[in-house]
Structures are given as C-alpha cells and as structure tokens.
Amino acid sequence: MGVVFKIIGLLIASFLVLFGAAGIAVAAFSGHPIATVVAVLQAVICGGIAGFIFARIIGEQVGANIAHSIFLFSGNIKPPPPEFAGIRAKIANGGYVEAEAALIAFLEKNNGNIHAVKLLAGLFIDKTRQYGKAAGLLKSYLSKEERTSDDLPFAMMLADVYLESGKNETAKEFLASELQKKYDSASLSSIRKRIEGIESPAV
Q1: What backbone torsions phi and psi does residue 171 show, to the nearest 5 degrees?
Q2: What pLDDT sits at residue 167?
Q3: Where are the alpha helices (DSSP H) in the chain?
Q4: What pLDDT score does 150 carry?
Q5: Which CATH architecture fits 84-199?
Q6: Nearest Cα residue to 38 out of 22, 50, 18
Q7: C-alpha–C-alpha distance, residues 88 and 98, integer Å
Q8: Average pLDDT value for the chain
Q9: Residue 159: what pLDDT?
Q10: pLDDT (0 to 100) of residue 51
Q11: Residues with Cβ < 8 Å from 162, sequence gap 6 or more?
Q12: Is 50 exceeded by the pLDDT of residue 59?
C-alpha cells in the first residue's frame, strides 16, 4: 500500500473516529429516544469502519506487538524488570552483542525468566539469525517439567526455528509432542492447525 493511500486512509479513519465520538456525545446528552438510537448506530458504524481501516494500514505490526504483550501476561507472570528497557534500547540501536551479554548475565541469575528468554530468542531469530543459539535456548527453556499454556509461544518459536533451518519434519515431530503437554484446548487447537499448515503449506 502506497504512502499516499496510507495517509488518506488514516485521515479518513481519524475523521470517522471523531464523527463516531460525536455520536456518542449525542447519545449521552440527548433525551430523545430516536435521536439516541441514531447516534449510537452512527458511533458503532463509524467506529467499525475506522477500525477496519486502521487494521488494514497498521494492524499487522500493532497486532504482532499486542500478541507478544498478551501472551506473556496471563496473570501469573510478573512484568519485565526495569533494566529491560535499556536492553531493548541496545537492540534497537544495533548493540546486539551487548544486549546478548546482558540477557545471558540476567538469565544466569534468573534461570528461565520468561521475559529474558523471549527477548534473547527474538534477538537470535530476528536480528542475528543465530538459529542454533535460538534452538538451544528454547529447548532448554521448554525442558522444564511443569508446562502451561504460557509456554506455547515459545514452542511456536522453536517450530519456526526448525522451519527456517529447513527441518520441516523435525518441526512437525516437535509440535506433535507438544500435543501431549498440559495446554488448554485453544492452545492445542493452535498446535494442530500449525501442524496442518506445515503439512499443507499455502501456495
């Protein structure tokens, strides 16, 4: 999608958001039943269209960021420590060696920390393309006895590493073994769909 179309789309979506907000204001202060219904419909329709436009333009990256945030916070996991902001800054500025050293040092003191494992695995996969290190890190993390659905994203990351390395059969066998873990039904369904995707890749 071109830059011009993106700008036009964002302007239209922003206008629709404001128009929808006006509908909400009317619904809140109008005493007339029909006017209230029309205003609510206006807000819902405008909001829906604006949401669709935003999703088409910026949804992929935002969706990925939201997904990465959501899967790490099931309610049983503490937020990342404050020093992680500095490590993320190092990664953003290309300081991969320093970030890797900082995360490894952190893991030596906080073995299996979910935030450190996620960030370090992401560094290996997305930035330095060190798939061997990523696989070793993820296999070590997933080797723990007690497993929950919070571990599913890491299992998917390991499957991705196998696939990026051309080890499709290894990825399938690994995911099949994950079906034996104590995941919830939604997680198990995601694994089955992933296996089906490997077996029948989209053309």
Answers
A1: -60, -45
A2: 92
A3: 3-29, 33-70, 84-92, 96-109, 114-122, 131-142, 152-164, 168-178, 185-199
A4: 85
A5: Alpha Horseshoe (1.25)
A6: 22
A7: 11
A8: 77
A9: 93
A10: 62
A11: 135, 168, 170, 171, 174
A12: no
Domains of the chain, residue spans: 3-70, 84-199
Whether residue 3 is predicted with pLDDT greater than 90 in this model: the reply is no
- How far apart are the C-alpha atoms of 68 and 88, rounded to whole Å? 14
pLDDT for 25? 58
Exposed/middle/buried for 107, CB within 10 Å: 0-12, 13-18, 19+?
A: middle
State the amino acid at position 199 in one-letter form. E
- The one-letter amino acid code at 118 reads K
Tokens, residue 52? 């669709």
CA distance 21 to 40: 10
Residue 33, SS3?
helix
pLDDT mean over 23-44? 59
